[in-house]
Specification:
It holds the Pfam family HTH_1. With 312 residues, the protein is an alpha/beta fold. The protein has three domains: 65 residues, Winged helix-like DNA-binding domain superfamily/Winged helix DNA-binding domain (Arc Repressor Mutant, subunit A, Orthogonal Bundle), CATH 1.10.10; 117 residues, Periplasmic binding protein-like II (D-Maltodextrin-Binding Protein, domain 2, 3-Layer(aba) Sandwich); 109 residues, Periplasmic binding protein-like II (D-Maltodextrin-Binding Protein, domain 2, 3-Layer(aba) Sandwich). 45% of the residues lie in helices and 24% in strands. A six-stranded mixed β-sheet has the order 4-3-5-10-6-9, sandwiched between helices. Strands 1-2 form a two-stranded antiparallel sheet. It has a two-stranded parallel sheet with strand order 7-8. α8 links the parallel β7 and β8. α1 packs across α3. The chain is elongated. The N and C termini lie far apart (65 Å).
Length: 312
Amino acid sequence: MLNYKQLYYFWHVARIGSITRAAERLHLTPQTISGQLAELERSLDTELFRRIGRRLELTPAGKTALSHAEEIFQIGNELEQSLRSGAASGARSFLVGVADAVPKSIAYQLLAPALHLPEPMRLVCHEDKLERLFAELAIHKLDLVIADRPLPPELGIKGYNHALGRCTMAFYGVPELAARYRPDFPHSLDQAPILLPADKASAHGLLLRWFTEQQIHPQVVGKFDDSALMKAFGKAGVGVFPAPSILKEEIRTEHGAELIGYARDVVVRYYAISIERRLTHPAVVAVSRTARQLLFIEADNALASNDPSIRQ
């Protein structure tokens, strides 16, 4: 009979490509992992790995085993979550990771449909760096990751990117800064104090490219991993800051900042990243459907309107 503990160790090593790193993640010694893999290969009477330099590579049999292991542990995770939470409350858990670069209000709008399904759903939301969220997704501790960039293929994580929509970026500032930089936008931003998302946010590179194309050289006075923290500094008048155009009213009412202008060519895309190629989790399906139908229509309409603040 198949030893599922050995299969679990194999699954980790196959995904990571290293016995040492898998042992660190599982809090075991490399010798323990190696011994268990050898036992698994003996019981199956087939070789699952071949060593290429310092890296392990799956054999054809190993690739088949990994495919089945993925399905086995996904089902096991669903069973565990169902028994732990559903039995007590009748609610199914929806485990979501949100990248810290994704604005909180956008995350709310994306996830809110999951709370209004016929089947009771308990939302468990975790915010973190994308790399850590992807690692949690890889070991089935998350059902979904909401991100501003797709899953990088070089991470070697089996996951699928589901596009939720896109949104044009705009620049905002407290009334004094808005009055100063709105005329002749975007060229008025040359040498202006600017707050930016941190380097790893997808908007960061897009904005830098846009500045170059517009021949603008702003004074970057701060970079922020957390979009909420950037808006807090913007509210204090430290500098002009970018944010998705669909947040225009929220930024005005909650942060006292006014729209300066739209960066027409800076478009941020949002993704739902799952381990499912075909979405089946009812909450994930609801998130995807609502985002495509509702959330990003406002941004497109804004650019198509006669809003006098639109310059670029």
